[in-house]
Design goal:
The protein is of the alpha+beta class and 350 residues long. It has two domains: 208 residues, Gyrase A, domain 2 (2-Layer Sandwich), CATH 3.30.1360; 113 residues, Beta Barrel (Elongation Factor Tu (Ef-tu), domain 3). It is globular.
């Protein structure tokens, strides 16, 4: 069985442990911080058939999704390649999909093509909602709106009568710090932002991307659409695929990758000390020193790293780690160093 990322009860690291942490992330790890996630958007699916409609299209079980939990899910092509990755939760009336903002409109349009006779409607509610990432000690800022903080990864708590204060989710810890996502109605956020600012440090949305990389948590963007079967980015290892649910686009390919043979490509956390704009972009190729003419992987996500350079989540041929070196853009490009994932991969990949 795959292990979860760090325990939600793990304390934040002490100041002595922050030497390797980017300066912009230190307030989040030491005290608590919030950031508005402008890199993400939100699609709301309404109607009595919303759950069954999504269940038939996404990689995870949406039918059984309760009010108290969130789930990762993907949307694949018929060839099993990911077009989008989502964080999914629901309230009493709708199901909500958090998605990379740069692919929201085309994915909403593509999903809508499958509605047919289903009683379901997709709406972009990004403008009416603030997606707020929170890290560290956030209790003082949030308990005025929520009765408690969610204490387990992917647990959801709704605030106020009829969830008027929005939904608060716990995500797996990263770099030893607790992570939360607050999907707040815009009016509520505007009324409460002064309290947030007095209790927490406001920081860049890039800190959220950096923490997601440390959690080994991929996000599909425009540059990486149709590049990966879910297992290639560890999506099943972090709970984004349910192999017991019914069919969905690409299901046969995803199941075949799971049950026949060994997955030979995986997402890994990497660092490069010095990179240029091209090298640090999602979708950039990586090369092995022993095979300069053939890429051995792709950059999934990137963010500013400690002491300069960048940290990456990189999809990679596993045998590239056994010898030689791996480089960005070309075999003589910036060299990558790799660190351990915070969760276990299936034993058959070992």
């Amino acid at each position: 069985m795959n292990s979860l990322p760090a325990s939600p009860t793990q304390p934040a690291p002490s100041a002595a442990n922050l030497a390797g942490v980017p300066a912009l992330a230190r307030p989040a790890l030491q005290h608590g911080a919030y950031m508005v996630l402008t890199q993400c958007g939100l699609v709301e699916v309404d109607g009595v058939d919303a759950a069954s409609f999504l269940h038939n299209l996404l990689t995870n079980d949406i039918q059984s999704l309760t009010l108290s939990e969130a789930r990762l899910a993907g949307f694949c092509t018929p060839k099993g390649r990911l077009l989008a990755s989502f964080l999914v939760w629901r309230d009493s009336k709708t199901i909500r999909l958090m998605i990379s903002a740069d692919i929201l409109a085309p994915i909403q349009k593509r999903l809508s093509m499958f509605v047919l006779r289903a009683k379901a409607k997709l709406n972009d509610v990004s403008a009416q909602t603030r997606l707020v990432g929170l890290c560290g000690n956030v209790a003082a800022a949030l308990l005025p709106l929520f009765d408690a903080l969610p204490d387990q990864p992917y647990k959801v708590i709704h605030g106020g009568p009829e969830a008027q204060f929005g939904a608060l989710m716990r995500l797996p810890d990263a770099a030893g710090v607790a992570r939360y996502l607050w999907a707040a109605p815009l009016t509520v956020f505007e009324q409460h932002v002064a309290n947030l600012h007095s209790a927490l440090s406001e920081t860049s949305a890039e800190v959220w991307d950096w923490l997601a990389i440390q959690a080994g948590e991929p996000r599909i963007s425009a540059a990486t659409q149709e590049k990966f079967v879910p297992q290639m980015i560890n999506f099943e290892a972090i709970g984004g695929v349910n192999f017991k649910k019914g069919c969905y686009p690409g299901q046969e390919i995803v199941a075949r990758s799971q049950y026949l043979g060994t997955v030979k490509r995986r997402a890994m956390i990497a660092h490069a000390a010095t990179v240029g704009d091209l090298a640090s972009a999602a979708g950039s190729e990586v090369f092995h020193s022993a095979d300069p003419g053939q890429p051995c992987g792709l950059v999934i996500n990137t963010a500013a790293a400690p002491g300069g350079g960048s940290d990456f989540l990189i999809e990679l041929k596993l045998d590239a780690l056994s010898h030689g070196s791996v480089h960005l853009v070309a075999a003589d490009g910036p060299q990558l160093t790799f660190s351990a994932l915070p969760y276990a991969l299936p034993d058959k990949d070992a």
